[in-house]
Specification:
- The protein is mainly β.
- It has one domain (about 1-110): Beta Barrel (Barwin-like endoglucanases), CATH 2.40.40.
- Helices cover about 10% and strands about 45% of the residues.
- The chain contains two helices and eight strands, in the order βββαββββαβ.
- Strands 2-6-3-5-4-7-1-8 form an eight-stranded mixed β-sheet.
Length: about 120
């Protein structure tokens, strides 16, 4: 049996941009997705702490070390610039891999900088 487990989380990212005219997705600073182990075009779940919205989309890499977190297309209706969000990535794992499993969790501070 495979279990769906949290694989990676970007905790407390601040939305920096919103672009309703774009096709869809979320743009995330390339350094942040690399630190979390998230791949470009990977499906993610997003939870907005400001309004309670929860939605799925896919990741587009943004300029490295820019701190960009941009809601694109329909996702732009799910939050506003300044909102705090959590970005989740899930994966399916067999039982024998879960024993020693722990997700990658990165926490962000001001300007979407990694908290060490």
């Amino acid at each position: 049996m495979l279990r769906c487990m949290l694989r990676a989380k970007i905790h407390r990212a601040t939305v920096t941009e919103s672009n309703i005219a774009y096709e869809g997705s979320i743009t995330i600073d390339e350094a942040l997705i690399k630190a979390a182990g998230i791949k470009p075009y990977e499906q993610v779940m997003i939870s907005n702490l400001n309004n309670g919205e929860r939605f799925e989309t896919y990741v587009i890499p943004g300029k490295k070390n820019s701190g960009v977190i941009c809601l694109n297309g329909p996702t732009a209706r799910k939050g506003a610039v300044g909102d705090i969000i959590i970005i989740f990535s899930y994966g399916y794992y067999p039982e024998d891999e879960i024993k020693d499993f722990s997700p990658v969790i990165i926490k962000l501070g001001e300007k979407n900088l990694l908290i060490k």
